[in-house]
Amino acid sequence: MPAIEIQRQMLPMFPSPNQGARFYNPELPETEPFVPGHRTCAGCGPSIQYRMTSKASGDNTILVGPTGCMYVANSSYLCTPYNVPWAHTQIGSSGSFTAGVAAAYEAMIRKGKWKGAFPNIICEAGDGSASDIGLASISGALYRNHDCLIICYDNEQYANTGIQASSRTPYGGMTTFSPPGPTIPEAKKLFPKDLARMMAAGHPHCYVATASVGYPIDLMNKVRKGLNHKGASYLMVYTPCQKGFVYETPRSIDLGRLVVECGLYPIWEWNPEKREFDYSFRPQNMRPVSEYLKLQGRFGHLHAEHIATLQKFANEQWRMMKVELPAALIRAADAKNLVDMASAEAAAAIAETV
Amino acid sequence: MATAVAKKKKVRINGCVAAAQAAKYADVDVITAYPIRPYTATMMALAQMVANGELDAEYIVADSEHSQLSIAHGASSSGARVFTGSSGVGVQFAYELYSPISGTRMPVQMMIADRTLDPPGDFGSEHTDALSARDMGWLMGWSCDAQEAFDNHLLGFRIGEDRRVLLPQMVCQDGFFVSHITTDVELPDTGQVQEFLPPYTHPYPLDPRRPVSHGPQIMPEQGPPLQLERARAMEGAVPVIEQAHDEFARIFGRRYDPWLEEFMTDGADVVFFVQGAHAVTARYAIRHMRERGAKVGLVRLKTIRPYPTDRVKDALSKFKVVGVIETNLGLGSVSSGGVLYAEACAALYESPTRPLVVSFMAGMGGEAIVLKEFYWMTNKMLDAQKRGAIEKRTHWVGFEE
Ligand SMILES: Cc1ncc(C[n+]2csc(CCOP(=O)(O)OP(=O)(O)O)c2C)c(N)n1
Ligand code: SF4
Ligand SMILES: [Mg+2]
């Protein structure tokens, strides 16, 4: 019996006249593979991302959920918000379980055991899973080029276990495993692992991109590009977590834009055909990092020198994106021109309750 | 590209290749491999079959055993028939996945060719690798030669995939003694396998046309019903296992008792209780000792999960002394030896005629248990019979007078 040819889907792009704009109101598909009624916190960035992502993917989708908030808070008490098939997997199994699903469909369709177009297979891994415990499993899936999309919803910490530092937690970020104190005033001393670049550099045949919930159409188009790409894709999405970042819940989308506007979350794509980065995404504004930091309790303890260190880090990111730095941002990288975060004590008090 | 049609034939292969052949006859869809001796030879054989076009399967070289088992879990959850395997520390590296796979009721099949755990880096066969996962909800048993290994792999798929069971299987064989010893194996006709093993279909696969959720988070009180269901699946496997063995005998002409093999137990006073390949040497030793008048026999445990409690009780109650051959490490356990002793004793507890039970730490590190050691152990058992008491619970064979 000859092998059956596998049909793959091609999802159209959403029109996006001004991708970096702060306000626009596009037409979205009506389908809701991720329905309301789950138990994530108000304003939860990862859930907002989940809804957009699954809308972009549509109904011929299989979701894989490694342990983390998008497993625990979404699927509590035998109720789940997924209108498409979904499976939990272990926190270290993000790439591997997903690879298993993709391999099964390759074999089953080819051998005539399942009929239909190849499904969109999406893994929703937290940053703890993607940058630490499940890193090898994801690298394996990308390297072997299974037809799937691995998304890291990056809330820059282990949220579900009560806010602990991950390899993605930014310098200066307060978590329960990186608290500030007289000996370590800046809280987290290490800079985050540049995970998306690692994935692009190490698996150049894959479509790799970064995105933020602040730019939904850009995010949804990248989801579709990742799914349309024949082979493995990796997408890393900034998804703020009000519980760990300690901010006012209506500001999730705002933070999603500010983090890009201040240069702390560069938005780019890796083009696997041309083998080059695409840095054409431009936010509407450029701002000093302090405008982003001051909205979050997790940075409330920072002194001027720490803020300057973060500004230097942001400025390097801009340079990497080949963006010319305005004089104001260069000035902001000097601690002399900065003040301490006023709310350090208040932030510490909030952190105790996390 | 279906599996090539094959007629029944006799071949000379080892246990590893026998396992690979069984996976081929079962027309598995997804194979996940990671190298570790001695089971590697199974995956080498399968890689060649896929390369030759004899078997149409996704052959995935995983980045670790943890990934191997996770890939197997994902593929099985999607409705594919899945084959994987490991040895020694590799079995342990994947440990996290054993409960999720059985808990989601995915009949993944895993071949284990035993290897001693580290330290030290020892290639020998000790059963501790697989036995450490014995309570994770996997069907489990040992083969004692290549033919039995081939047969047990086919039986494993048939039993594990049965809708009344839906449990993963660890089909174990001793490293080297089975995995690398070449013997005659009868390979069946493809038609026979098709008659014995229906295509795998899971009732609730991950299929976009019938959305389901696998493994959601639960409240504590929602846990016990699920655990009970898994426990019942294990108990419910008992009649399915027996039925499958009957069907196997009808179709392939080889009949096995699924639980115990008794060898020269007629009129025996003392018996060895053993799993796996050392039974083959034991049979020789017993024949010799019988010729010299010792009333010794052998009971081989073929399936340890589910444990055939009543069968073990009834079989072992007939004797005066039972000597458990462990070939596994249970540090600080009831007998301060291996883990088989405690289960044999527990099975015997309700018997009105309990034999004396003694545990022998033999075959450790993958050493062969030589005839001389079987004679020594038999003498220990005969002594105990004479004195009506055991000298001690555990003997480290080769370390005592
Ligand atoms: C093997 C293992 N180690 C640790 C845990 C505990 N754990 C549960 S959720 C979680 C946090 C995951 O963090 P991340 O992947 O970033 O997802 P988030 O909770 O932030 O959404 C951890 C560490 C686990 N479930 N399994
Ligand atoms: S703790 Fe953070 S990631 Fe988790 S549900 Fe709440 S907002 Fe979302
Ligand atoms: Mg996280």
Write up what this structure looks like:
The complex is a heterodimer of chains A (354) and B (401). Chain A has 354 residues and is of the alpha/beta class. Chain A has helices at residues 45-57, 69-72, 94-110, 127-133, 135-144, 195-202, 216-228, 242-245, 252-261, 289-293, 304-320, 327-331, 344-353; strands spanning 61-66, 86-89, 120-126, 149-154, 207-212, 233-238, 269-271, 276-278. In chain A, helix 7 links the parallel strand 5 and strand 6 (233-238). Chain B is α/β, with parallel strands linked by helices and 401 residues long. Chain B folds into 2 domains: 9-252, Thiamin diphosphate (ThDP)-binding fold, Pyr/PP domains (Rossmann fold, 3-Layer(aba) Sandwich); 260-396, Rossmann fold. Helix content of chain B is 38%, strand content 18%. Chain B contains 13 helices and 16 strands. Chain B has helices at 15-25, 40-51, 65-77, 88-93, 98-103, 128-131, 146-160, 190-196, 223-252, 278-291, 309-316, 340-348, 371-387; strands spanning 9-13, 30-33, 58-61, 82-86, 109-113, 139-143, 169-173, 183-187, 213-214, 260-263, 270-274, 296-301, 303-305, 321-325, 356-361, 394-396. Chain B has a 7-stranded mixed sheet with strand order 3-2-4-5-7-6-13, sandwiched between helices. Chain B starts with 8 loop residues before the first strand and ends in a 5-residue tail after the last strand. The mean pLDDT of chain B is 96. Classes of the chains: A alpha/beta (354), B alpha/beta (401). The interface between A and B is large, with 52 and 49 residues. Strand 2 (86-89) of chain A pairs parallel with strand 9 (213-214) of chain B. Bound molecules: thiamine diphosphate, iron/sulfur cluster and magnesium ion. Thiamine diphosphate binds at residues 46, 67-70, 91-92, 126-129, 155, 157-161, 166 of chain A.
